[in-house]
Amino acid sequence: MTRILRQVAPLNPTIDKTLSIILRPTMQMKILYKILGLAIIDFGLIWLWVYQIDPDPSISIEIILLVPFVFVLNLLIAGVFLYAKKKEYSSVFLANAVIASIIMFYLFGKGIDRYQNKRLEEWTFQKADTTFSLISWKETNEFSMTYSLNPGSSWSFLDGHCENKNGKWILKTEAMKMQIENDNLIGFRNQTDTLKMTKIER
After folding, report:
1. Minimum mean pLDDT among 11-20, 44-53, 77-86, 106-115: which range?
2. In terms of Cα–Cα distance, which of 171, 169, 172 is closest to 183?
3. Angle 11-19-5 from CA coordinates, rounded to 5°
4. Does residue 11 carry a pLDDT above 50?
5. d(CA 162, CA 146)
6. Taking 70 as the threshold, does the pLDDT of residue 12 lie above it?
7. Is residue 134 a contact partner of residue 185, using CB atoms and an 8 Å limit?
8. Which of 142, 202, 133, 129 is nearest to 173 (CA)?
9. Has residue 29 got a pLDDT over 70?
């Protein structure tokens, strides 16, 4: 389209300048569509990779390597296109360097959350100046409780067996029996003791 219009008035600089102004938004939209399309491809590929590796919290530190890797990789591709005098594609990958890095950070974090959600449920509750944490492990049907007097430190004090019956968690140890119903812990101190807990959502 651009070539045809320019051939109509090749010697008229005023018309040529007017055509450039008219066609510039169209060219910008083409670049925007390419950036959007590449972002969709990035999302699909990164999601598939994260789903396959199923990252656990122990490798969360790797995000500080993965995000720069994705960023630099896109910069290198942009540099190759710039060297080949394909400025449009260079601009696309330059923008994608930021977009792909954000996607990697987001999906890797969600992958870790998915790993934990498949394997455990966690609640917390407060009594006086002590914060209690209760975790039920779905795969082993076990639970554990910890307490913390200050942020950054915690101590385990109770472990036992658990099972889910009709939406209720039944917690058993050698000396006591508790249950969790609607995020309420029943039987912590005595059989009638009911504590409202906060479920940790990931």
Report:
1. 11-20
2. 169
3. 65
4. no
5. 16
6. no
7. yes
8. 142
9. yes
pLDDT at position 133 over 90: yes
| Residue pair 131/153 in contact by the 8 Å Cβ criterion | no
The pTM (predicted TM-score) of the whole model is 0.73
Tokens of 170: 């039944």
The end-to-end CA distance of the chain, in Å, is 51
Query: Residue 50: exposed, middle, or buried by beta-carbon count in 10 A (0-12, 13-18, 19+)?
Result: buried
The DSSP code sequence of 61-91 is GGHHHHHHHHHHHHHHHHHHHHHTT-HHHHH
* Residue 103: both structure tokens together: 């996607």
Counting Cβ atoms within 10 Å, is residue 31 exposed (0-12), middle (13-18) or buried (19+)? middle
B/e letters for 108-126, b = 16+ CB within 10 Å, e = fewer, are beebbebbeeeebbbbebe
DSSP 60: G
Run of H or E including 160: strand 155-165
Q: If you compute the radius of gyration of the chain from its CA atoms, what whole number of angstroms results?
A: 28
Whether 122 and 202 have beta carbons less than 8 Å apart is answered as: no
Lowest mean pLDDT among 35-44, 88-97, 133-142, 151-160: 151-160
| Contact yes or no for 132/146 (Cβ under 8 A) | yes
